[in-house]
Design a protein that fits this description.
By secondary structure, this protein is α/β, with parallel strands linked by helices. It is built from 22 helices and 16 strands. The protein has helices at 2-19, 31-44, 49-56, 64-81, 97-100, 104-110, 116-122, 127-133, 166-170, 183-192, 196-199, 212-221, 238-244, 262-271, 295-300, 314-323, 340-349, 366-375, 392-398, 417-421, 442-446, 467-476, and strands at 145-147, 152-154, 160-162, 175-179, 202-206, 227-231, 251-255, 277-281, 303-306, 329-331, 355-357, 381-383, 406-408, 431-433, 456-458, 481-483. It has a 14-stranded parallel sheet, with helices on one face. Helix 16 packs parallel to helix 17 and helix 18 runs parallel beside helix 19. It starts with a helix and ends with a strand.
Length: 486
């Protein structure tokens, strides 16, 4: 009960801010408290008590005595907190707190302070809140995840029917993630959500048994589809990609699909002339296939991520810099055959790079960092996780990158305090990770307080990150989020 009062008091503070035309971005959005508060808010909304009982179902309800007692205390509190009401304001016509929480104008401002997960809970408070929260504007950039078990309801007698997806359509989602589905499940989903044929722009299929025919039908029926992700889908082949991919797809991600090899990448390069982003994890892709990309794609493609492509070597880098020299984001994470020579080719020929990921490339040394510092002065993000041959000398080279915003050095086991000192004057840095660097001490780490604009510092599994040091950071870097196990 006390937790409910705390949330209501904080919510009323937001309401006060809306009275005065202020914003309250610091509102505590603890999901567990919101869950408790939703039950209390339903008791306040006296006009929709019957609807609340229907909507909340099995959710635990306060007793009538508790409702009356809590309502009296909160209403008394609301009167004490309420600011002077200005005449003529459309938002201030409510006579009391319960009536205020039924005002559509007020609620549309109030509910925008909550996260999508919290809105899912708050939509159960009453029909008024649900109607407001189911507007598409509250669900932009949210991807619902639907497992196969969520798509079917079991009727008496054991028969299964496809579930209602009315709420899905009401909220106007333009992206969806389907897990563990097959061809028939995808067809049923599209048939029961006819709006998806015109509105759905991005689809992710994970651990699904979609076949070549199923992939072709899905892409053909979803006329607005622009982004496709296939993860852990082992039933489609390169023939399916050749027959199903359409030029309107501009973002493609494929990972952990065992049938993806050189022919698949050839299909992607030939069938998607306007491709802007390709994320590929394929163990059997070789160097030559990256030469399939054309000059037209060089003008449109800005993001290429090749993850754990174990057969990729410096010869593949030659093809990348030749075919796609205008990339802004390049990842070769886990491409263990890449060496300093490959990084030199990248640095000398891809001057527009903003982000470079060389994590888990064990052959990378300080020489590679020298090439980066000399030829990529506009680089904003550099990921060097598990590059175990990098030393303090390499850190000295990185200090010349005046535009670097994010630097990741997780588990770079040879970096010491002396190398860290080279970063003290990099005032452009906003994000730094030294997680798992065993040779860093509290003395060396304490100097990072010179980075006064640092927004995030990761110290997980860093032996030098003592409790005293964390307290020191909290005092001297108050705006910096510390990521640590303590």
């Amino acid at each position: 009960m006390r937790g409910m009062e705390t949330v209501v008091k904080k919510t009323w503070n937001i309401v006060n801010g809306l009275h005065l035309g202020e914003s309250r971005p610091g509102f505590d959005k603890d999901s567990s408290k919101i869950m408790k508060a939703s039950g209390f808010f339903s008791s306040l909304c006296s006009k929709t008590d019957a609807a609340n009982n229907n909507n909340q179902g099995a959710q635990e309800q306060p007793s009538q005595k508790e409702k009356r007692s809590l309502k009296e205390r909160i209403l008394g509190q609301s009167k004490a907190l309420s600011p002077p009401i200005r005449r003529g304001s459309e938002l201030l016509r409510a006579k009391d707190f319960p009536e205020l929480l039924q005002s559509q104008q007020y609620l549309e401002k109030l509910l925008c302070y909550f996260s999508p997960c919290e809105r899912c809970v708050l939509a159960q408070v009453c029909r008024t809140w649900k109607k407001i929260l189911y507007q598409p504007k509250y669900w932009k950039d949210v991807t619902p995840i639907l497992h196969r078990r969520d798509l079917y309801d079991t009727k008496e007698g054991g028969s299964r029917v496809f579930t209602s997806l009315v709420s899905f359509e009401e909220r106007g989602f333009d992206t969806v993630c389907l897990v563990n589905v097959g061809d028939l499940d995808i067809c049923e989903f599209i048939d029961h959500c006819p709006k998806t044929k015109k509105c759905l722009k991005a689809v992710s299929l994970k651990r699904s048994t979609v076949s070549d025919a199923g992939l072709e039908v899905m892409i053909e029926q979803l006329g607005a589809l622009e982004s496709l992700e296939l993860s852990g889908c082992n039933d489609f082949t390169e023939n399916g990609l050749w027959s199903s991919l359409l030029p309107r797809i501009t973002v493609l991600s494929i990972s952990d699909c065992i049938n993806v090899a050189d022919d698949s990448v050839a299909a992607i390069a030939q069938r998607l002339p306007f491709l802007q982003e390709l994320n590929l994890q394929a163990y059997h892709v070789t160097d030559g296939v990256l030469a399939y990309f054309s000059g037209k794609q060089s003008d449109t493609m800005s993001v290429l991520r090749l993850k754990s492509c174990w057969e990729i070597s410096n010869n593949a880098v030659v093809n990348i810099v030749s075919s796609l020299p205008s990339l802004a984001v390049l990842s070769l994470s886990g491409c263990s055959k890449i060496t300093d020579e490959g990084v030199r080719l990248i640095a000398e020929n891809m001057g527009m790079l903003k982000s470079l990921d060389l994590s888990w490339c064990p052959r990378i040394t300080d020489t590679a960092l020298e090439h980066i510092a000399c030829d990529l002065p506009k680089l904003e993000e550099l990921i060097l996780d598990r590059c175990v041959r990098i030393t303090d000398t390499g850190m000295g080279y990185l200090s010349a990158l005046n535009c670097l915003v994010a630097l990741y050095l997780r588990w770079c086991s040879q970096v010491k305090d002396f190398g860290l000192q080279h970063l003290y004057n990099m005032q452009s840095l906003r994000i730094l990770s030294v997680a798992g660097c065993p040779l860093l001490t509290a003395a060396g780490l304490s100097g990072l307080t010179q980075l006064t604009d640092l927004e995030e510092l990761e110290l997980t599994n860093c032996q030098g990150a003592t409790a005293e040091l964390l307290q020191y950071f909290s005092k001297n870097l108050p705006k910096c989020a510390l990521v640590h196990p303590l």
